[in-house]
Amino acid sequence: MSEREVLFDLTGRVAVVTGGGRGIGRGIAEGLAAFGARVVLTGRTQSTLDQAAVEMRGRGYDALAQMADVSREGDVVALRDAVLGVCGQIDILVNNAGVNPIYLGIERTSLADWQNIIDTNLTGVFLCCKYLGGVMAGQGKGSIINVSSVAGHVGLRRSVPYCATKGGVELLTKGLALDWAKKGVRVNTLAPGYFETDLTAGMRENDALAAPLIAHTPLGRFGKLDDAAGAAVFLASDASAYMTGASLVVDGGWTAD
Ligand SMILES: NC(=O)c1ccc[n+]([C@@H]2O[C@H](COP(=O)([O-])OP(=O)(O)OC[C@H]3O[C@@H](n4cnc5c(N)ncnc54)[C@H](OP(=O)(O)O)[C@@H]3O)[C@@H](O)[C@H]2O)c1
Fold first, then answer.
1. What is the distance of C-alpha 225 from the center of its chain?
2. Residue 120's closest CA among 138, 143, 97, 88?
């Protein structure tokens, strides 16, 4: 293997990808596995995770499925213990699980809506960093990738709770990067723009909403599942060894305009 290839090689590393069964998380999981990582896919739906793991193993990748709701502390602790029990280590954590179930003005946003989004998008990242990232801090090495959003950098309309969580993830990341730099754990965000996933299906199917978004995107299309994979491999690998507390925006240029 050439020196250049070694930079991106993830052989022998264990990666946990939350929300790894579908969407952007699935694309990231495939990318990490393609570069040699053993990948643990997590989410709330066992059947989705099992199917994804079987498909990935069918292509020669090392993939496991472990159910966990990231908003539940007990689930995250059990996930950590299960991964350590089977794999013995955690080297890469991708906090990708996220929801945005409502597009409403704040007047029509209930406290329950707010709490639901905070629980997964922000508390989930906190819990996974604390318990799975904590393993990395104990090991003295690791890379955490928190999937935020362009909504962590600029405001989106009718998405106050979502923007609040993604802005929170951006600054959680910087704070943790400071705390754990000396422990050998790098912490960065990957901030996607608009991708072709279940999360954006309603919006993409409405031409009145989709057309202006595409028009505002210099690269002229929505992101595809594996468009985030290269950025994730970069942040997970030694190629980004001098990066921590940073945000890598993958949005087709949407925030540049
Ligand atoms: N799609 C976009 O355009 C876009 C843009 C910017 C940022 N993002 C961010 O990218 C990430 C992935 O989004 P996506 O578009 O791929 O969404 P998606 O297709 O809706 O997938 C979301 C994933 O998260 C999992 N999940 C949701 N709540 C969870 C919980 N409480 N515990 C564990 N897993 C949970 C889901 O699995 P289960 O339902 O089985 O649990 C699913 O695997 C999110 O953080 C999102 O905010 C997406």
1. 12
2. 97
Distance from residue 199's CA to the centre of ligand 1 (Å): 7
Which of 16, 22, 24 has most ligand 1 atoms within 8 Å of CB, for mutation? 24
* Atom 17 in ligand 1: residue holding the nearest Cα: 199
Q: From edge to edge, which strands make up the β-sheet containing 142-147? A: 62-67, 38-43, 14-18, 92-95, 142-147, 185-192, 247-250
- For each of the chain's 257 residues, which pLDDT tens digit applies? 887 789 999 999 999 999 999 999 999 999 999 999 999 999 999 999 999 999 999 999 999 999 999 999 999 999 999 999 999 999 999 999 999 999 999 999 999 999 999 999 999 999 999 999 999 999 999 999 999 999 999 999 999 999 999 999 999 999 999 999 999 999 999 999 999 999 999 999 999 999 999 999 999 999 999 899 999 999 999 999 999 999 999 999 999 99
Q: Are the CB atoms for 117 and 100 separated by under 8 Å? A: yes
Tokens at 252, concatenated = 């087709």
pTM for the structure as a whole = 0.98
Domains and CATH numbers, the chain: 3-250 (3.40.50.720)
Which of 194, 196, 210 is CA-nearest to residue 254?
194
Interstrand relation of 92-95 and 142-147 (parallel, antiparallel or unpaired): parallel
DSSP 6-28: HHH--TT-EEEEETTTSHHHHHH
d(CA 78, CA 137): 18
